[in-house]
């Protein structure tokens, strides 16, 4: 596994994420009309979406399913040899499933599970997005025209997964996938690992593993999309309020990551974060920042404290979602 | 007319403005799809529009006409008696035309012209906006749902009119309408009045009169719409660029008014400003700020200098618009 | 009394506010180093302060006293005759105290109390601020150089006063002072007036009266200072956190006023709001917006709910301040 | 040399940059009082500075010299072996100078020149910043307290160097240092390389080489510092204007990099950019974006066009700086 003296980055970035929803039409309304994403393809029970700044053709797959949650989580490697190295490492753990011909938007991928059971994929070949004439940007270096509808999310940022054993999953992510550990929440005098935030490169985190307080497996805490400015997060709050989208927390500033965020629930029930700012980790000898009970506090630097549901609720839900989750969001009449 | 020791404010605010356009469909696209205004009514060759924060049912009337320019400019008074006082004052100037039954959205109005010939109206009775269910805001104090499309202008702010004799029009506005003089640009050792900015109350200016360098009469320099944040102006620049809307100047900060702005041309040719920030004039003994050649500089505090077209171009145009005005803006395919 | 058919605005704006503090040095550090205000004069136990955008020489008087709270609240009229009219009206209520020679920064003023006992003044003559060379702005229309230290508040905006009988004080403010009623919170089927927000002109409110849940008199809920951008409020939160200033609520968006805010406690114990955005009331026939229990909700449109202390705590304090109020803020070592 | 099939990132990030100034006191005022950087050390004719978000003890060395310009430019590697690999590669080019014991803040470094003669260094060992108590942040993951004075730059972002032969320097940077080519401006049907932007990882560019129109060698075009929000750039413009700092261009948005910026001259004459937003390059197969004459346009996406001085002026200056560069900026009297 990685030579400590020689950091190797085999994972390039978080690739496609698949979200499951029992309300596909309403969820599509949320991602397209409210968040401003673009639907590029549909196939079977799935619609493939993208942010205007994503380089890949698609980064979010929305699939109808009985329960909300995360389907697969795909990682892109920096090269073909890097893919081979990571597949070999995964196979050594016994968590590998096998090769697949790939999904819409990317080529052959190797399927596996993390120790908690979340379904994952790793691949290198990807279909670069080529915008149709009507969606071509006037900026040569922007893959797609900036949308003027809704929140206007730019690209996928990260996701947070719940699990039974944070340490086991954190070790898998760092030792087998080669991610770097950025921040941790560890309680009870360093004996209880509550959460670990990891990334392949300078982005603060691409995945977080957090303890599932319900003791369940394979659940999604939230999926996070990037926008460029904090004002856009404030504007998102207005848009959510005006369109019946439930805001769970924020706008506020995290203490870990320093990012500015708002959490809402898409109509299918998955928690979605709109996220910006924060900091890049450019230094190669960054020391993992560890927060204990007192340092972590309420999980925010300032602004709205995270509510109880932030700890209790995840998808698929252990029980019915909190009463204040709108079950029938108003569908935009346009 | 106004007792100097006793300031009386008879004009409440700038009311409805009518813009003329030779390209009504394209202009409507600009105001509705790009700026995010709402069309509430159409009648004859006109469409009636509003910003989400306007209290009146309509504040912008868009009328098909052979040439771009401003149709009528309507002022609302603070009361019925105030209307009577102002009408009497206007009639004493010989510039009155007479009473009209009013247009869509407001009641009886008195029509007149300013000394330069711009057609104006003054009225008190107005139709308050009542949003239909689908456009009702979740904020009790907001007349209409915040739009999540385009720039999202909130309300009318002001307009700037060109004229042959700034002094004559400024005196009419202050002495007959009762507006207050806020800022002036006066060149050639105080002998040449280039522009005067006036308002009825704390808003910095609701109308400006600026010298027409072409020596024409009755022309419009720009019509200005308010948004709440400077970030929204920056976002507007992106939206304009991506949709083929010509940006003439900005985003920048004015020196007079201190406001942050961007000027674009709507497809019909009228110059439209998106405007925010600036300052309120709350003090009752505000001293008019006068800028001479050196103080005025390029007309900006920082940022893009105003180009030559900003001085030369107005509607109706003296000649063909500058070559870089898009003649065929891309129509949003949605 | 004001003729209903003829709205007359005799009050120009909220003038000087005096805050009392048992910790004058620490409070001065808060207003000067943290908020970025300028100290222009000191006399006796008082220091006179101003924001860079205030037209008056001073708008905030900070006075050493055994307990925190508000000293006097001064209103400026639009003219001398307006002052005479308002004094006559006040005298008719029996709440008048008498003329005084005025304080630093303004001329003769008439002293009185509102029905709840808050000490007030009304005046017209005021000393316009003339910046010394080192504080002169490069903008002709800005009274003072924009400060590059701390939060950078621009000007006084409003204050909120607690009282035993909101209706009595609201009637005094509207009928005797001539303010206009903008928004109200009324509970128990319209029988219990919780709060009323009023202003002299387009500014949303210059004073609010809110029910004192402790049944005390003459207390201050908060004093509010304006800054130009919501980003400045977010930046203020960082500055407060880094300098040990207690943040009670926000950054969030109010539902009434639509403003974006953060509440902190200055070291003397007074609650100070940093405030921006919101809306202007330009329409002369604005209908007071009334919020009942369900519409008012937690008092925010989105973001951090207002905590219990927001209802319970005011100055002078009924009991010791909440435990989380820093008693010894770190003094800036510069 | 880098194996094409196996991208290896040996350079972690741009490390310390040394700027030369003939006006050390005034330049120090600019970086400390106006930009809000912290001076951590002084030695000989140099002062060592840092941004509040920099991990290294110092990232900017300001050295008195007869002429403005860039002293050395130091690159940090990801590890010791990476350092050895890069030194070997540099030595093969004949551009190496030799090992040095290192400067304040970092350990042994290898000195060399780029083909154009700019002095460079490469190192791995670095002194992590440990804030003194008074400068400790309340955020565990922030190296230093957020400053509340001036512009508040967070960290070094990049620099742009002028050179006689862009291709030669671009090849050195990509082939010998291992940077990746992100964007280029190439004129005259692809025959004339005007500029090339490169980075080691996801940051858009850490160095740009641009053709020196004066045909000189070793010059600096600009040094760029990051702040978190576009509003902070607008605020910087106000601060520059109020303090006599010359603004050459912006606030505007670049077309290449998509970043939002303002360029000013520090009193010593070096061009300094305040920079934010833009985009990260996370995809491993990013295709270099190439701009020709028509695509590049005026070099901005919107906003103020870049003036002639932006092409003509660099440090050391070929001739006297433009007349509008303030020679004696007002020194902050505090």
Describe this structure in words.
4 copies of one chain form a homotetramer. With 334 residues, chain A is α+β, with helices and mostly antiparallel strands. The first copy, chain A, has 6 helices and 18 strands. Chain A has a 10-stranded mixed sheet with strand order 17-10-11-12-9-13-16-15-14-18. An 8-stranded mixed sheet of chain A has the order 2-3-4-1-5-8-7-6, with helices on one face. The longest helix of chain A has 14 residues, at 80-93. Residues 1-5 and 323-334 of chain A have low confidence and may be disordered. Chains in contact: A-B, A-C, A-D, B-C, B-D, C-D. At the A-D interface, α2 of A face α2 of D.
Give a short summary of the structure:
Chain A is built from six helices and 18 strands. Chain A is of the alpha+beta class.
Low-confidence stretches of chain A: 1-5, 323-334
| Computed structural class of chain A | alpha+beta
| CATH homologous superfamily heading of chain A | 2,3-Dihydroxybiphenyl 1,2-Dioxygenase, domain 1
Q: How does CATH name the architecture of chain A?
A: Roll
Q: Which two chains form the greatest contact, residue counts included? A: B-C, 48 and 48 residues
Indicate the overall shape of chain A: globular
Helical element count of chain A? 6
Query: What percent of residues of chain A adopt helix (DSSP H or I)?
Result: 10-25%
Sheet of most strands of chain A: 10 strands, mixed
- The total tally of domains of chain A equals 1
The fold-level CATH name of chain A is 2,3-Dihydroxybiphenyl 1,2-Dioxygenase, domain 1
Q: What's the CATH C level of chain A?
A: Alpha Beta
Radius of gyration of chain A in whole Å, from Cα? 19 Å
Instruction: Going across the biggest sheet of chain A, name each strand in turn.
Output: 17-10-11-12-9-13-16-15-14-18
Overall pLDDT level of chain A: 93
């Amino acid at each position: 596994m990685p030579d400590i003296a020689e950091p190797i980055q085999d994972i390039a970035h978080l690739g496609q994420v698949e979200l499951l929803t029992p309300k596909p039409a309403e969820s599509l309304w949320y991602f397209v009309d409210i968040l401003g994403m673009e639907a590029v393809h549909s196939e079977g029970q799935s619609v493939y979406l993208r942010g205007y700044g994503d380089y890949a053709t698609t980064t979010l797959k929305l699939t109808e399913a009985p329960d909300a949650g995360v389907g697969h989580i795909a990682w892109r490697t920096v090269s073909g040899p890097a893919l081979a190295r990571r597949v070999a490492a995964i196979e050594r753990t016994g968590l590998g499933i096998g090769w697949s011909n790939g999904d819409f938007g990317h080529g052959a991928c190797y399927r596996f599970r993390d120790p908690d059971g979340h379904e994952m994929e790793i691949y290198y070949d990807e279909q670069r997005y080529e915008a149709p004439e009507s969606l071509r940007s006037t900026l040569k270096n922007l893959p797609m025209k900036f949308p003027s509808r809704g929140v206007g999310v730019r690209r996928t940022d990260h996701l947070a997964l719940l699990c039974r054993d944070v340490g086991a999953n954190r070790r898998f992510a760092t030792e087998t996938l080669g991610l770097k550990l950025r921040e941790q929440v560890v309680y009870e005098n360093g004996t209880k690992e509550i959460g670990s935030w990891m990334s392949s490169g300078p982005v603060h985190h691409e995945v977080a593993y957090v303890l599932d307080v319900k003791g369940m497996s394979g659940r999604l805490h939230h999926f996070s999309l990037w926008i460029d400015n904090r004002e856009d997060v404030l504007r998102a709050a207005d848009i959510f309020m005006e369109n019946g989208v439930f805001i769970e927390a924020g706008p506020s500033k995290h203490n870990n990551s320093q990012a500015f965020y708002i959490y809402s629930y898409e109509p299918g029930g998955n928690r979605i974060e709109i996220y910006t700012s924060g900091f890049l980790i450019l230094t190669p000898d960054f020391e993992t920042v560890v927060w204990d009970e007192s340092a972590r506090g309420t999980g925010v630097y300032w602004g709205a404290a995270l509510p109880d549901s932030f700890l209790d609720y995840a998808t698929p839900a252990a029980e019915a979602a909190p009463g204040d989750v709108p079950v029938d969001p108003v569908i935009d009449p346009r």
